[in-house]
Structure of chorismate mutase:
Amino acid sequence: MHRTTSTAARLGRALAVGVTAAVLVLGGSGAVAAPAVRTAPAVGAASHAGPYGQLRTLAALSADRLATADLVAAAKYGTGSPIDDPAREQQVLDAVSRQAVEAGGDPESTVRVFRDQIEANKLVQRALHRQWDADPSSAPTERPDLGKVREEINRVNGELVRALAASAPTRTAPYCDGLLTAATAHVRHARGLDTLHATALRRALPSVCG
Ligand SMILES: C=C(O[C@@H]1C=C(C(=O)O)C=C[C@H]1O)C(=O)O
């Protein structure tokens, strides 16, 4: 019988693709911090990369951010904490708006991109909660620390803000949509994303171009 991928397997895959997951796992013997590992392509290089490389960096960072949705979903599952947290969302949007100005980017378009990033994250969380409700044996057996996962989200947010600022001319170019589609497909295959995460990745990116 088909069995839904466990959270541990997903976390392993997230680590394998290089997403930092400094996750505090709560266990009977106390808290164990998983190792923090390297992340996506160096964003400092994004401004030197060509248009396709810049868009691939944006897609890769968006996939990094989406990988955290599995951990957030596990952190909230069975706790009564809602998937939607409007206060936290506002904090994220205020922070990225400030960071965009610091990075020489456009705060309005940065906020638009992050609204989509947040919707994509919640899309994954909702789907996983539905899966776990339908098949409790597939539900996570460990609960990540939401505060630690949010630290990781904040870190990816900062990288994404800087990558957006560094790719401003590419993002308003007429070829942006086509290149972004190709870059998204590349990241999907390189990361081995399943249908849910591939769908969410597309949901994360429609405001990048234009
Ligand atoms: C990721 C979380 O879940 C939702 C998605 C958010 C995001 O993508 O930044 C923020 C708040 C929540 O609405 C969270 O609660 O931290």
